[in-house]
Amino acid sequence: MEGRWTRAVLVVWVIGVLVFLFLPIATIVIFAFDRSNIQSWPIRVFTTHWFTVAWDDPAVRSALWLSVKAGVAATALALLLGSAAAFGVHRFRFFGREAVSLFLVLPIALPGIITGLALRSFFTFAGVNLSIVTIIIGHTTFCIVVIYNNVIARLRRTSGSLGEASMDLGAHGLQTFRYVTLPTIATALVSGALLAFALSFDEVIVTTFTAGAQTTLPIWIFGAIRLGQQLPEVNVVVTAVLVLTVIPVALATKLTGGGGLTRSTVQ
Amino acid sequence: MNYRRFAQLKSWRAAVILAAALPLAIAGWVSGAAASPGATARPSTPGVLTPPTQGMTPQSSIGKGEGQLNLIAWEGYVQPEWVKPFEQQTKCTVKATYAGSSSEMVSLMANGGGGQYDLVSASGDADLRLIYGGDVKPVNIKLIPSWKQLRPFLQSPAFNTINGVHYGISLQFGPNDLLYSTKVFPKPPTSWSVIYSKKYAGRITIPNNPIQIADAALYLSVHEPKLGITDPYELTQPQFNAAVALLKQQKPLVKAYWDLASSEISLFANGEAVVGAAWPYQTGQLQAEGAKVADTIPSEGATGWADSWLLATKAPHPNCAYMWMKYIDTPEVQAEQAVSYGETPDNSLACPLMNKLAKGSCDSLHANEPDAYFKTIKFWKTPLAQCDNGKDNCVPFQDWVTAWTQITG
Amino acid sequence: MARVSAALWRRAWLRAALTLSPPLAWFLVIYLASLVVMLVTAFWTVNPFTNNLQHQLSLTNFAALFDAPIPAIIGRTVLIAALVTVTDAVIAVPFAYFMARVATRRVRNALFVAVLLPLWASYLARVYAWIVILTKDGTLDWTTQHLGLGSPNIAYTNLAMGIVFCYIWLPFMILPVYGALERIPDSYFEASADLGARNSRTLRSVVLPLALPGVVAGSIFTFSLTLGDYITPLLIGSGSGTNLIGNVIYDNIGLANNLPFAAALAIVPIVIMIGYLLGARALGAFEAM
Fold first, then answer.
1. Which of A100, B395, C70, C144 could form a disulfide with B240 if both were Cys (CB 3.0 to 4.6 A apart)?
2. Are residues B332 and B349 in the same domain?
3. DSSP character for C96?
4. In a shared domain, residues B288 and B347
5. pLDDT winner (highest mean) among A97-101, A247-251, A252-256, C262-266
């Protein structure tokens, strides 16, 4: 459909964008092998020393584990609350519906420092001690938005008559949900969960305000950056995370059919 | 609109309205309540300040360690070199949260440390805020034997001891010195004028911290004596305006204002900056990686810090905290930290041990100077409206922050 | 079970209440209440002597928003946010078009992974990598010197901040634009061709208008993330003439202890973003997110 010349231009553009996207990633991976603490181009001495340092470092392990725990909890909560909200807003017409759908986007639309500051003031006022619970509360708040957006986008494109047909055929609510509704939104849930977990795993601003003395991985990285004595170790850890996540991300992409964000079931 | 449908949804509508009213009700409740983030009740008479936690009785003995210790520290204060032996001895696992400025430390310590942090290595300009904010509590000096070995003028200094009550123990002190590239300056610069000079335009770096106004004031106290600046932290409005004007003149010459120690290290390592205000920590890090830099204290003198470990009001691990305070002020550990960071230990017995770690370090770090030497360093303290001479017309720190935002834009 | 679900089916409001109350409760009690608590603080002041919050309503903080350099900082932040949004949109549309319409299924999947993967490499580490690239004698300088083009040395400038922002937010722009483009049925293109339009005309009149909701949805991210970011200016800005709204808010929370002013300043991005959201909804962006 597109001319050959257009295609060629597009291919060049895509390659350019990919180079742009991966230039810093390549820098991170290369500098994981830098002997020097001070990251400066060009690298004089290469070494794998920092890989052993990172492997032995208990602070890295506990930070990584805390990030995973917080991310899983936040994503799980967000899946429940976000899809519930999506169903509620999509299916029912009620007073204030427009306002509600606007409110539900706020945690992502408002800058992180505001969300963090507001939550911190609130926790102080309510006398709640900062802990992993408050971190999870903070993360869930913006993860809900991601799930909500994905599910409601899917719901808008599916026909409601499928559910009614299912009930006409004698299935009760739970069966309809399990056999009709859930498969329809399944890929939206998976891709939403993936994006929500990624956002939670890498989140630093809101976490700074809602964490007490807990260290998630991004907070550990920020501490290491300011100290300036373990910069290659940071690069090692980031490289390791990247390598570990390529497979799940590729799998999820394949499962949801090229993103699953938008594949319509009914044209 | 379908009115029949609307009427059927009446109860739902009521629920939504109630739910919308909830946050407004909370707001009203909050306005009425005395609660406010990070502040505790204080007498409202201006000029007469009493630390809120003054009456708290400190513990009389050190119990069993709680197994954990959460510190807020300057970068470089919690090095494995002395932390690992401490952890082995006391079984208290040390966790450090780094802060690059007193501002961050005060922020982290809000609400008495929030039940999260035990100790903070605060400098003089944060100490008073923390003490009067009720975020730190009295410490029992008798539980810390090495306190007696501290230099006399640092045993009960005005920045951590109020009305005879100690809120922590003094730690180490050091100057904000001048870091320079030895390629550009074969001989050490003798005056701070190099960082205000057009000759090095675009290659200067200074800290991104409002307290830098005091450094400008210090410079002016020597170069413009008719301003009559005696204390760079107690500035009348005209003196303050002069310091701010100097900094505004300097702004186009500055390559970058550094927030993190590692940012300044990067600037020098990449050759972006050739001269700037720094801590000895950066010099040590750069020299360890072979960079051609050195530092010095120019003739006008320097501002500096005098740090203390203060005990958080809501410290969750007070026994480990006391064990740390005991440990960190012993001569051996003092020597290690001094040599590692490049500062001067408060413990008067550390000097020979420093020379064992690094020959000549006792001299170069001024650990054996008489007390008079330290008068040349103007230690950080919180600028308050109350000047020492009894008047109330000095510029308070809030105005320093506003002015700094105007300077850096 | 069947009785319960039948009863629920008849009472629509009960079903609505059950699905909506947990998320709404979360939002109202935690999120909105927090925002309100913070916003009320904006009307208070801090006593410079005792450092206490004074609970009398006052508009001093809002008046202080007009003192230099705050308006300049707000203007700078909005300008950078706008430029980053436009740049990312321009970069994203051809890329997303290729993904949606030209690439084979396997290539599309690979590109998807390629776009998502950087989100897993820490934001902080990526910004720091840009310092290495853009600094004096860094990767960029080294490359241009070898090509005989001199030494740009653009680290610690607003340009560097702009480049980093464009880079970090790009995946958030690509994904919604891809979503919008992927939804265009093939039949539209055929119809356009049937009506005599050449490729460029189809592009202008069919593709771009339909991509717009996706662009607007992506712009919500790029705009709001830039409005509140303080870490990128901290790492790669020069601290002078590069301060953004986020930095000033952050600076006022610590030793300055001027929480009311920080809250008042925080209202500016909130107002901007709510206005932006209302406009975005009018342009149909919410369907495209």
1. B395
2. yes
3. H
4. no
5. C262-266
Q: Which of B6, B114, B262 has the CB atom closest to A129's CB atom?
A: B114
Q: What is the CATH number of the domain that holds B154?
A: 3.40.190.10
Q: In one letter, which amino acid is A95?
A: F
From chain B, the residues in CB contact with C48 under 8 A are 385, 396, 398
- C288 falls in which pLDDT band (50, 70, 90)? low
Q: Which residue has the higher pLDDT, A13 or B98?
A: A13
Contacts of B269 in chain A (CB under 8 A): 38, 40
Question: Does B78 share its domain with B215?
Answer: no
Q: Which one-letter amino acid corresponds to residue A197?
A: F
- For residues B279 and B328, membership in a common domain is answered with no
Residue of B379, B352, B371 lying closest to B363 (CA atoms): B352
pLDDT band at B27 (very low <50, low <70, confident <90, very high): very low
CA gap A237, C118 in Å, rounded: 14
Q: Which fold has domain C68-288?
A: MetI-like fold (1.10.3720)
Classify B221 as helix, strand or coil: helix
Residue in the block written with tokens 């305006």: B241
Taking the alpha carbons at both ends of chain A, their separation in whole angstroms is: 21
**In a shared domain, residues B245 and B343:** no
- Exposure string over B237-266, b if 16+ CB within 10 A, otherwise e: eebbebbbebbeebeebbbbbbbbbbbbbb
Is pLDDT larger for residue A213 or for residue C114? C114
B221 and B258 both lie in a single domain? yes
Question: Under DSSP, is residue A256 helix (H, G, I), strand (E, B) or coil?
Answer: coil
Tell whether B271 is within 8 A of chain A (Cβ): no
d(CA B298, CA A101): 62
B274-278, C52-56, C94-98: the lowest-pLDDT one: C52-56
Residue C185 in contact with partner chain A when CB distance is under 8 A? yes
Residues of A in contact with C163 (CB under 8 A): none
ipTM of predicted complex: 0.87
Interface of B with A in 236-265 (CB under 8 A): 260-262, 265
Which among A168, A166, A169, A199 is positioned nearest to A183, based on CA atoms? A166
Residues spanned by the domain of B88 = 68-173+305-372
* Domains of chain C, residue spans: 68-288
Q: Which residue has the tokens 């309809």?
A: A176
User: Would you kindly state where each structural domain of chain A is located, as residue ranges?
Assistant: 51-255
Number of domains composing chain B: 2
Same domain for B213 and B326, yes or no, is no
Collapse the DSSP code of B134 into the 3-class scheme (helix H, G, I; strand E, B; otherwise coil) and give the result: coil
Report the C-alpha gap between C127 and A21 in whole angstroms.
Answer: 12
First to last CA, chain C: 36
Q: Are residues B324 and B339 in the same domain?
A: yes
Run of H or E including C30: none
Determine, yes or no, domain membership for B60: no
Q: Is B246 helix (H, G, I), strand (E, B) or coil?
A: helix
Residue B28 has a pLDDT of 45
Going by DSSP bridges, is the β-strand pair C45-46/C53-54 parallel, antiparallel, or unpaired? antiparallel
The crossing angle, in degrees rounded to 10, of helices C139-146 and C123-134 is 30
Secondary structure class of A135 (helix, strand, coil): helix
> Which of B23, B42, B107 has the CB atom closest to C28's CB atom?
B23
Its pTM stands at 0.86
CA–CA separation, A235 vs A37, rounded Å? 11
Write the class of the CATH domain A51-255. mainly alpha
* Interatomic CA distance for residues C207 and C215, integer angstroms: 12
Judged by a CB distance cut-off of 8 A, whether residue C259 touches chain B is yes
CA C97 – CA C89 distance, rounded (Å): 12
8 A C-beta contact, residue A114 and residue C264: no
Instruction: Describe the crossing of helices C158-182 and A4-31 by its angle, rounded to 10 degrees.
Output: 130
B136's enclosing H/E stretch is none
